[in-house]
Design goal:
The protein is α+β, with helices and mostly antiparallel strands. The protein is built from three helices and four strands, in the order βαββααβ. Helix 1 packs antiparallel against helix 3. It is globular, with a radius of gyration of 13 Å.
Length: 97
């Protein structure tokens, strides 16, 4: 069965990388632990730009991503990071390999 994925790129405001890192790592761990349809949640940080983060997330399907956005840990993430984020880009992908 093909899975659904997203690639999220977030640029945080200057000086907010450490705070953001802790919050996103908590969200990623909770997603993998608490959501059976979340199969992968990788958090990457650019070596040459510590204020830019990339998430690679894999779900069973697009509906599982929508369910992810209704979880308490995602809502907490959104609330705590709203003022930290300068730019956000989300790409929806079909996982083929």
């Amino acid at each position: 069965m093909a899975h659904f994925s997203i690639v999220v790129t977030i640029k945080v405001k200057p000086g907010e990388a450490d705070k953001f890192r802790g919050i996103i790592l908590e969200n990623a761990a909770a997603s993998l632990r608490d959501e059976p349809e979340c199969h992968k949640f990788d958090v990457l940080n650019y070596e040459d730009d510590p204020e830019t983060f990339v998430f690679y997330e894999v779900y069973t399907n697009a509906a599982a991503l929508e369910s992810h956005r209704d979880t308490p840990h995602f809502k907490k993430f959104a609330e705590l990071t709203g003022d930290l984020i300068a730019e956000r880009d989300v790409k929806r992908c079909q996982l083929i390999s």
